[in-house]
Amino acid sequence: LQTRMQSLQPDPKAQYRSVYEALKKIVLTEGFWRPLRGINVTMLGAGPAHAMYFACYEKMKKSLSETLQHGGNSHLANGIAGSVATLLHDAVMNPAEVVKQRMQMFNSPYKSVLACVRTVQKTEGFGAFYRSYTTKLTMNPLNIGRHLSGMVTAFKTVYQLGGLSGYFRGVQARVIYQMPSTAIAWSVYEFFKYFLTKHKLEKRTSL
């Protein structure tokens, strides 16, 4: 839904006023499973991406805290660790997001994840999977083919085509998706962290 709603020049048949309208229209006209196209590649990348995120975050947080605050809890260390961990996480997830978004576009020509990966690699090269990872962006929804060099140009283009509201298109869909996703990820992480730490302490005391 976020992908469809954030398109700056959507097909007349793919214009939506709200998340509910978008979901209803997509399901009725394109089928029940259409909003979930490409989710398998996202699930495939989520495991290693989150593993890298949490491993990097914990390691850097501990090392930097010891350096900056002599073993204490440093907010600066936490911030730096989170930033670096996010970079690694997005390095894995960015290609998955690119494939997912292309498959969820209106009238997407891709029949499968593998077909999408092969076509993008063949026609646009490996860099296409990381365009949005850096400040050099390329907008390509519904075959617009408009190339954007840098964040300044991107911001200007969004404002020209969508005004201030253009920056917030699809934000409801993003929040609806991110809230349970983040809650589940951090809950599972904290549970296993607590469980493993407790088990390790019990093992030490029993020796």
If strands are numbered along the chain, what order do they take across the biggest sheet? 1-2
Instruction: Give the tally of β-strands.
Output: 2
Q: Tell me the structural class.
A: mainly alpha
Measured as a percent range, the helix fraction is 55-70%
How far apart the termini lie comes to: 55 Å
Number of helices: 7
Low-confidence stretches: 135-141
Q: Residue-averaged pLDDT, rounded?
A: 76
Strand-and-helix sequence, N→C? HHHHHEEHH
Protein name: Mitoferrin-1
InterPro entries: MCP_dom_sf (IPR023395), MCP_transmembrane (IPR018108)
Solcar repeats: 1-63, 73-157
Subcellular location: Mitochondrion membrane
Report a brief summary of the structure.
67% of the residues lie in helices and 3% in strands.
Describe this structure in words.
Mean pLDDT is 76; it is low at 135-141. The chain has helices at residues 2-5, 19-30, 39-69, 75-104, 113-124, 150-162, 171-206; strands at residues 137-139, 146-148. The protein is elongated and about 70 Å long. A hairpin with a 6-residue loop joins β1 and β2. α3 (39-69) packs antiparallel against α4. The chain has 207 residues and is mostly helical. The chain has a domain at 1-141.
Key descriptive features of the protein:
mainly alpha; 3% strand
